[in-house]
Amino acid sequence: MSEGPPGTSHALVRPAARDDIPALVILARRAFINDPFTNYCGDLKEALSNDVSTPRRQHLEIFYRMLFGAIIHSGGRVMVVAVPIPPKSDDGQSTGAERKRNRRRDKITAVAAWLPPHVRIGLDHPWALLRSGLVGAVRRWGLKGAHRAGIEYGSKVEKAFEEIYKARGVKETERDAWYLQLAATEPDEQGKGYLSLLVREAFAHTPSATFVLEATTEKSRDHYDHFGFQLERPIVFGKGQFDSSGYRAKGESAQGFQIYAMVKWTGS
């Protein structure tokens, strides 16, 4: 493993396994519980809480379970930062299987899910979504939320990247790039350099590639800027009905919110 930022010396970047998905779902829910676009898709009027289980919070977990499944079924690279957990002391009565599980225990602290060129998740490729629980997610979120996440988001982002690439005068399109579908760090583990480990791993995996993403907060936008992504264009959602945090609003506060189309161009 390459040397990472200070404080990450015991962390390992590895591919996610299928039995990691339950932990990844909880991590994503905790990280994105108050994300503006998540709030918008849920048509929320007030914040959800990681401390209180509600039907809407459960709907969020169902969505991320579907999303991780679709990423895996589509051939995406789901990489995690895993921090070893010291093994429990053995009293001599554990079975062989229990001792084996104890030796390999770790805690997933961050995840990055990348889609390779020409692979994207959307309603134009429904099979991966259907295999991953699309029907259940739509049933929980409703048609309005499904439309915002599956149609409105994709159409606005696609249009923005078309304009970005055209303005730059390159022959390639956004679909020729690696796409960061999702990146999240466990809230209690933020500030330890785990996102940096994941981004550096991706750059090392395909060093000559272009990478694209949409940052959904100013904080994440600034993080990606530090990694060499250029802010190319803000994209506005919910103007006239939602506030800057993605909650339903009226009047002057209903200014909508922005996400940020960003690109790390080849060689930059």
How are the SSEs placed, and which strands pair?
Elements: E1 12-15, H1 21-31, H2 36-41, H3 55-73, E2 77-84, H4 96-103, E3 106-115, H5 126-131, H6 134-168, E4 178-185, H7 194-205, E5 211-215, H8 218-226, E6 230-237, E7 257-264
Parallel strand pairs: 4-5
Antiparallel strand pairs: 1-2, 2-3, 3-4, 5-7, 6-7
Helix pairs in contact: 1-3, 3-6
How would you portray this structure in words?
- Helices cover 40% and strands 19% of the residues.
- With 268 residues, the protein is an alpha+beta fold.
- It has one domain (12-87, 102-264): 3-Layer(aba) Sandwich (Aminopeptidase), CATH 3.40.630.30.
- A seven-stranded mixed beta sheet has the order 1-2-3-4-5-7-6, with helices on both faces.
- Helix 7 (194-205) links the parallel strand 4 and strand 5.
- The protein starts with 11 loop residues before the first strand and ends with a strand.
Task: Provide key terms for this protein.
268 residues, Aminopeptidase, Trichothecene_AcTrans, Acyl_CoA_acyltransferase
First-residue to last-residue Cα separation: 24 Å
Overall number of strands: 7
Helix content: 25-40%
Report low-confidence residues grouped into runs of 5 or more: none
CATH class: Alpha Beta
Shape verdict: globular
